[in-house]
Write a structure and sequence with these properties.
The chain is mainly alpha-helical. The protein contains five helices and two strands. Helix content is 44%, strand content 9%. α2 packs antiparallel against α3 and α3 crosses α4. The chain is globular, with a radius of gyration of 16 Å. The model has no long low-confidence stretch (mean pLDDT 87).
Length: 111
């Protein structure tokens, strides 16, 4: 019977966790984009393929982990900091190219 060891394949790719420091606190994030992030985004997408503003916290929690997101917020993270962390993670996970930035439009940070 053919066998493919996905655990070994993942180890050969990236297996070192990503260290993120925000407001003097260190967070360890997975070396690869968790499937939960993609599945959460799919579940939350509207008819245009975007996320509603009410769904952004849920998606961010999937990206960085619910406990990490809550700690970031408790430590006073700003919207700009969360955008910067999100962009860096999406580049690290090869979801967007390094030179591309997330389009946020001209709107102000949510209040």
């Amino acid at each position: 019977m053919p066998k493919f060891d996905f655990d070994e394949a993942v180890k050969e790719d990236k297996n070192e966790p990503l260290e993120v420091v925000l407001n003097k606190r260190e967070y360890l994030l997975p070396a690869q984009l968790p499937a939960r992030v993609v599945l959460t985004q799919i579940a939350l997408m509207d008819e245009t393929g975007g996320l509603g503003t009410n769904d952004i916290p849920t998606w961010l929690g999937a990206l960085v982990g619910e406990e990490n997101l809550q700690q970031m917020l408790d430590d006073g993270a700003t919207w700009e900091q969360l955008e910067a962390v999100t962009t860096k993670l999406l580049v690290f996970y090869n979801v967007i190219p390094e030179e591309q930035e997330i389009e946020t439009g001209d709107e102000e940070a949510p209040k």
